[in-house]
Specification:
Bound molecules: adenosine-5'-triphosphate
Distance between the termini: 34 Å
Shape: rod-shaped
Structural class: alpha/beta
Strand content: 5-15%
Largest sheet: 6 strands, antiparallel
Helix content: 55-70%
Number of strands: 14
Length: about 750
């Protein structure tokens, strides 16, 4: 790896674009004081990423930009590009040439480019770290900086050696690993605390899930209860419906039979007919009783007549025994025939009469006719015929009267018998009527009862219908709670034995209890389980994160361990090599003696203790600090410390050390800005020899006023500054350089 070219534009005194090429091993930059030589070294330092303005001899970024002179106006921006030969691909980048550019504008905006692509400072640092080029590295030794190693503290020296040995990159890696480990630790703590919180939630959700699972069991139980309930209820309702249907059919049938055969109206008609007949018979009986009474009266009358007549006859007979004994009464046929014909006519009418009442009437007529005739004969007997005729007439009359009395008595007897018969009939009719009316009442009562029963059955049917509606609503509710529509309920036919009010109420109470319990369980199990699963998945993720982080922490620790080992072993080996080279350079410069570096550890007060430096701190903390001590044994003098060396000697020791460092881990190029300033002629020659030796291993850019040094250069750049305050560059080839240096 070699520095091929450096281009400056607007950087400090290089107002114009200026390019320096480095084709050979040693390049010298020469020129008068203040012409701008050191600006070249600084431009390299800056382009490689230097951040310290102090080491660039400025205060602000703006100080790096050409500030203008009375004759040349100031530049707006500064830019430095360095081109590295990457043929050997030491830089892990696919290009053969790598151009690193850094620019800054007056507004302070800075930019880095690698092969014209904008990059970050970190990218530049990391890229250059691969070849040991970096900020504040030992490859650019500014004016007066050669002594830096000697004047540094042991700890700083150690750091410088580590840097020179290229261990910085491992240290950076270690620091990075440390940072990452710390970050990982933070992440572990963070994840742990998040997880702890999440686990609390998970625990809570787990309980919820357990509850939800309980709820699922409860729901199952409720489903069973509902199923049993609906099975019984459906069976009961179906059975009741059937029962009601059957009963209704029976009653309707009874009612219809009742209407057609024994209709209450029919019964009522019969009763009316019976009543009418009874009335008629009662009327007849009344008539007959009247006739009987009349007959009785007549009979009494006739009997009284008969009595009277018998008295008269008795008297007449007594009389006739004297005067009229044997007197006959003669009645002609003309007189008796019409009477007999009338009697025969009436008797015939009586015989033909439709009923007894009429017959009696005719019979009474006969009684009148005979009475009249008897009277007439009696008149004949008393008047003209003498006592005999009269007695005979009286006797006839008496016979007739007795006959009439008998007939009337007979008629009366018949009339009484007839009346009594009719009364019997009336009695029977009344009984029938009473029976009919009883039956009628009974039928009506029965019909009323049947109708009432029918109405009751209708009301029962309505109750069943309402209960079925209720059962339907219950099913809907049950479906909503349990997710089962209970459509597959199979009830055991119409077997409802045992399903009664108490059992139904008990079942409903049990269902209600479970429903209330379930309500207590709140949101659906599905949601909780989903939430729980989500939380569990997150917890697993946290667990995996933690295990990944722990694994990452372990591998970082391993890496740090490995880096520690590498750093310490590389340091140890490097230190040995440096010591050998240091001693060699020392020997060749001082012609004898001994020089070396030694790794020492000393106890120092810990950081915390240092803060209390002014105070007396008995319990101050101490820690071990590693550092590098330099030991020098001058061949001719007794030197116990570096301070005892002359300025030149000190400078030579510093240069020996610098060169030794560069020998062990040669940087791609080494810039030495007037490192030889303090050397006398003889030492300058020795320095020049050392340069030559070093030039074999690393590219050298030396800024010098020293002729011996110039002589080692293959190319010389002369820097001048005119009256305009702008640095200019002149290049002088090897031969010319030699001539120049001779001159
Ligand atoms: P010496 O041999 O004495 O060490 P040198 O050649 O190394 O000198 P430098 O230190 O490189 O000189 O240059 C310093 C010069 O650069 C000074 O003249 C200074 O005025 C000039 N300079 C520094 N910064 C700027 C700037 N921002 N603008 C213009 N000129 C600047």
């Amino acid at each position: 790896m070699r520095l091929k070219k450096l281009e400056l534009s607007g950087f400090k005194s290089f107002a114009r674009k200026t390019a320096l090429e480095f084709p050979s091993a040693v390049t010298a930059v020469v020129g008068p004081n203040g012409s701008g030589k050191s600006n070249i070294a600084e431009s390299l330092r800056w382009a490689l990423g230097e951040q310290s303005m102090k080491s660039l001899r400025g205060k602000r970024g703006e100080d790096l930009i050409f500030n203008g002179t009375p004759s040349v106006s100031r530049a707006g921006r500064a830019s430095v590009s360095l081109c590295l030969d990457n043929g050997g691909k030491k830089l892990p980048i696919a290009y053969d040439e790598v151009v690193i550019t850094r620019t800054i504008s007056r507004d302070g905006e800075s930019e880095y480019l690698i092969n014209d692509s904008t990059v970050r400072l970190k990218d530049v640092t990391e890229l250059l770290g691969n070849v040991g080029l970096g900020v504040s590295s030992h490859h650019i030794i500014s004016q007066g900086e050669a002594d830096r190693f000697l004047s540094a503290s042991p700890k700083e020296r150690k750091a410088m050696i580590e840097e020179a040995l290229g261990l910085k990159i491992y240290q950076a890696k270690k620091e990075d690993a440390e940072k990452r480990l710390a970050k990982t630790g933070e992440n572990i703590n963070q994840v742990n605390s998040i997880r702890a919180e999440a686990q609390r939630q998970l625990k809570f959700l787990k309980k919820q899930v357990e509850r939800a699972e309980e709820a699922v069991l409860l729901k199952e139980e409720l489903k069973k209860l509902y199923a049993e309930y609906f099975k019984n209820e459906d069976a009961y309702l179906a059975a009741e419906t059937e029962k009601i249907k059957i009963k209704k059919r029976e009653i309707t049938e009874k009612l219809s039979r009742f209407d057609s055969v024994n209709a209450p109206e029919a019964e009522s008609d019969e009763a009316a007919a019976l009543k009418k007949e009874t009335d008629r018979l009662e009327r007849e009986v009344a008539d007959m009783e009247k006739i009987t009474a009349e007959l009785g009266a007549k009979r009494n009358l006739l009997e009284r007549e008969l009595g009277k007549l018998e008295g008269i006859i008795e008297y007449k007979e007594k009389e006739n025994v004297g005067h009229n004994a044997g007197k006959k009464i003669v009645v002609s046929g003309e007189e008796i025939l019409p009477v007999l014909e009338r009697i025969a006519g009436e008797a015939k009418a009586a015989a033909m009469a439709a009923d007894m009442v009429l017959a009696k009437k005719y019979l009474l007529n006969i009684v009148d006719i005979t009475g009249n005739f008897i009277g007439k004969i009696s008149k004949i007997k008393t008047g003209g015929g003498g006592n005999e005729v009269e007695l005979a007439s009286l006797k006839n009359k008496k016979t007739e009267l007795a006959l009439a009395v008998n007939e009337i008595a007979e008629a009366e007897k018949n009339s009484v018998a007839e009346s009594s018969k009719k009364r019997e009939e009336i009695k029977s009719l009344r009984n029938r009527l009473a029976e009919t009316e009883r039956l009628l009442l009974q039928s009506r009562a029965e019909a009323r009862e049947l109708k009432f029963a029918l109405a009751q059955l209708d009301s029962e049917g309505e109750k069943i219908r309402l209960r079925r509606d209720e059962s339907g609503r219950e099913k809907q509710e049950a479906a909503a709670i349990t997710g089962n529509d209970f459509a597959d309920i199979v009830y055991d036919g119409l077997n409802t034995s045992g399903w009664n009010y108490e059992k139904r109420e008990a079942a409903l109470r049990q269902i209600e209890r479970l429903k209330i319990k379930l309500e207590d369980y709140g949101v659906g199990a599905g949601e909780i389980i989903k939430e729980y699963e989500e939380a569990r998945r997150r917890d697993e993720e946290y667990e995996k994160n933690l295990s990944d982080l722990a694994e990452a922490a372990k591998s970082l620790e391993r890496l740090m361990e490995e880096l520690d080992k590498k750093i310490s072993s590389d340091f140890e080996n490097g230190l040995k090599k440096i010591n050998t080279e240091f001693n060699n350079f020392f020997l060749s410069i001082f012609g004898g003696g001994k020089a070396g570096l030694e790794l020492v550890r000393k106890e120092i007060r810990g950081k915390n203790s240092l803060e209390d430096e002014d105070e007396e701190n008995e319990a101050a903390e101490y820690e071990m600090e590693a550092g590098i001590e330099i030991s020098v044994n001058h061949p001719k003098k007794r030197i116990s410390s570096l301070e005892m060396l002359s300025g030149g000697e000190r400078s030579l020791v510093a240069i020996s050390l610098l060169f030794a460092l560069s020998q062990v881990n040669p940087p791609p190029f080494l810039v030495l800005d007037e490192t030889d300033a303090a050397l006398d002629e003889s030492n300058s020659r020795k320095y020049a020899d050392m340069l030559k030796k070093l030039g074999e291993k690393t590219q050298l850019i030396v800024i010098t006023h020293n002729r011996e040094t110039m002589r080692q250069a293959d190319i010389l750049y002369g820097v001048t500054m005119g009256a305009d305050g702008v640095s200019r560059l002149l290049s002088v080839k090897f031969d010319d350089a030699k001539e120049y240096s001779e001159a």
